[in-house]
Amino acid sequence: MNPNHTVWRKESKSAENGGDCVELASVSNVIAIRDSKNPNGPKLTLNHTDFRHLAETLKHL
Fold first, then answer.
1. Tens digit of pLDDT at every position of the chain (61 positions)
2. What is the pLDDT of residue 11?
3. Dihedral sign from CA coordinates of 33, 3, 49, 14
4. How many whole angstroms separate alpha carbon 2 and alpha carbon 50?
5. 46: closest CA among 59, 33, 58?
6. What is residue 49's three-state secondary structure?
7. Which of 14, 18, 26, 32 is deepest in the core (most CB within 10 A)?
8. pLDDT computed for residue 50 by the predictor
9. Cα 44 from Cα 25, distance rounded (Å)
10. pLDDT at site 1
């Protein structure tokens, strides 16, 4: 993952002052996830199927 060429997206309902947000980026064949408060920190990558499963699971919490 090349951070200089990665386009990160934050939830549109997220406050401009940060908060508890994650950012997502589509990189090659994976979805990358990072903490918006720590953009240089670790990133989690999931394939598209696993990301969809995670998103569906979180909707039901």
1. 665 688 999 877 666 665 678 899 998 899 999 998 898 999 999 999 999 999 999 999 9
2. 76
3. positive
4. 22
5. 33
6. helix
7. 32
8. 98
9. 10
10. 62
* d(C-alpha 7, C-alpha 56), whole Å: 23
Predicted confidence at residue 48, as pLDDT, reads 96
**What's the token pair of residue 26?**
């589509």
CA distance 39 to 13: 19
Other C-beta atoms lying within 10 Å of the C-beta of residue 23: 19
For the chain, count helices (H), then strands (E). 1, 4
What residue ranges in 1-61 does DSSP mark as E strands?
A: 9-10, 22-27, 30-35, 44-47
Of 7, 3, 13, 10, the residue nearest 40 (C-alpha): 3
